[in-house]
Amino acid sequence: MNESEEMAETLAAPHVARSPPVVGNPFSAAARRCSPEAALTRIQWLEGQNEVLELLARGAPLTVCVTRLAHVIEVTAKPARCAIFLPDISGTRLCLHAAPGLPAAYHRAFENLEIVSGFEPCGTAAHREEPVVVEDIIGDPLWSPFANLVGGLGLRACWAQPIPDQDGKVLAVVALNYLEPHEPSADEYRTIDSICSIVRIVIEHTRRAHALESANERFASLAASVPGVVYQRLVSPDGSIRYTYISDGARDLFGVSATEILTNPQALFDCHGPEYRQTFRENLLAASRELRMWDVEAEIITRGGQRKWSHAIARPQRQPDGSVLWNGIILDATRIKEANLALAASNRAKSEFLANMSHELRTPLNAIIGFSDVIRGEILGEIGNSRYKGYADDIYASGMHLLEIINDILDLAKIETGKLELIEDAFDLGPAIENSVRLVHDRAKANDIALTIDRPPNLPRVHADGRKIKQILINLLSNAVKFTPKGGKVAVTASVDASGGIAMSVADTGIGIAPEHMAKVLEPFAQVDSSLNRKFEGTGLGLSLTKAMIELHGGSLLLESQVGIGTTVTVRLPRDRVLD
User: E strand or H helix at 348, and its extent?
Assistant: First the structure.
């Protein structure tokens, strides 16, 4: 027996006569009346559908579901032979996914079809997005490319039905092939309609399931690569807390498996430090009510007893039932926390060292200043050589300058350790401003710098540390004079601002500060120019101390500057510092 005879025998089936097709609407009342044989076929169809739906529910692959569906269609649409095609990824070709009742020759010939009109029924149906019914293949132009094959297969009729998805794109094409010329009857129209529905369900469901599975795999892969714990937590309206998802990173960070946490969230809560554990539930419920971001750093103790630090960040989302879903991440902040603690300890040690050294230095320095003052004043008698008196003046001036630096360092050390206390009292700002200007007057005059004061005569008194306020003004004025070229101007203004507080400004026409250096000049010991090319003396403590001291009063400092135009520094005391 040759291949053609074998294929013909495979397809051979007794011809079943069909009633004439119903003219007009195939879903009319007349069309819905059917024979007992048709009723039995429908029962078989429903049973077959249930079987396919069970396969879907169990997560069977698309090929398995589609192949089983093709079997069911063939049983329902006897003596048809069913073939189901799906578009490829490009959407330009149809791929044969199931044809259980058709021989290998059909599979080879139709495994990959171009979606184009006028070439063959299935590709034409997909291209036109409409059914193509060929009642007699012999002589039909759509089958001319397969004329030699048709004789061997014994096919005589073919109905190709495109099935659109929700967006109207072709999801699949179902082809019903017959061994005799054949046109659809009313029952067959209903069968085709049912076939389209179940095929659409099967393909869309499996594709969605596959897409969801792929998304879950991608998410799991991403979560596994994050150096921490990715989680989804649900807080119910009754206050219960559970995790709907938590990544495997929980084992690395807490020493507890994700499976155990999903079953018993308390296993995770028990890993937090005692203080955090006591307030965790209350704080989480409050954040859930207010839909506040969760941004918490906490000490944890792993199941193995290791102490770590965690940093949890999560965003809340209210659900329709009133519960709150938290999507978040927990990072291992141990190294950062330990580094910060070490840095804080180092800073404290540095500040304490500076404070101690400042005290140690001031004792001999006071002797140098005192004795040089005695010599320069010739209190115990005249100096024989006038040059010695000049040396004594230099020693005194250098000692005073060094003492100022040491006092600044001591103040900075006290501020950083929180030991600088304000000695507050009521005092007048007017005299403080005038005295501060008087202290820099000689320096300004030597450089031909004009000093001006603009303040109202009734400037109210304030409750503050008078010595610190004067130090703030002197620091600002000294900087302004130092960085203003010869012939420039320095102006001091003071007034009551819009909030009822006090605003004091020192503006100069000096060299200005570049935008990229604005933040740097407010840092302790910061210098814009390097130690190798410095043009101006100073420790770089003036502005940072000024900012720290005004903030101790609850105030603020604003720095405004333009290179080549000048700088304005404004300090503000809050309304509660104003007495009158």
Answer: helix 334-376
Q: For the whole prediction, is pTM greater than 0.70? A: no
Per residue in 376-411, pLDDT tens?
888 877 887 778 878 888 888 788 777 777 777 777
Q: Where are the domains of the chain?
A: 3-211, 226-332, 339-416, 425-577
Decide: 247 and 258 in contact? Cβ < 8 Å: yes
DSSP single-letter state for residue 183 = -
Q: Are 468 and 571 in contact (CB under 8 A)?
A: no
Length of the chain: 580
Region 3-211: CATH code: 3.30.450.40
425-577 classified as CATH 3.30.565.10? yes
Q: Angle at Cα 86 formed by Cα 85 and Cα 92, nearest 5°?
A: 110
Task: Report long-range pairs for 311-316 (Cβ below 8 Å, ≥24 apart).
Answer: 311/336, 314/231, 314/233, 316/287, 316/288, 316/291, 316/292
The fold of the 226-332 domain, in CATH, is Beta-Lactamase (3.30.450)
Q: Report, at the CATH architecture level, how domain 339-416 is classified.
A: Orthogonal Bundle (1.10)
CA–centroid distance for 16 within its chain: 66
574 burial via Cβ count (<10 Å: 0-12, 13-18, 19+): middle
Q: Do domains 3-211 and 226-332 have the same CATH topology?
A: yes
SS3 sequence of 407-422: HHHHHHHHHHCCCCCC
Report d(CA 482, CA 440) in Å as an integer.
10
pLDDT in tens, 449-473: 999 999 988 889 999 988 889 888 9
Give the neighbor-by-neighbor strand order of the sheet with 489-496: 450-454, 489-496, 502-508, 566-573, 556-562
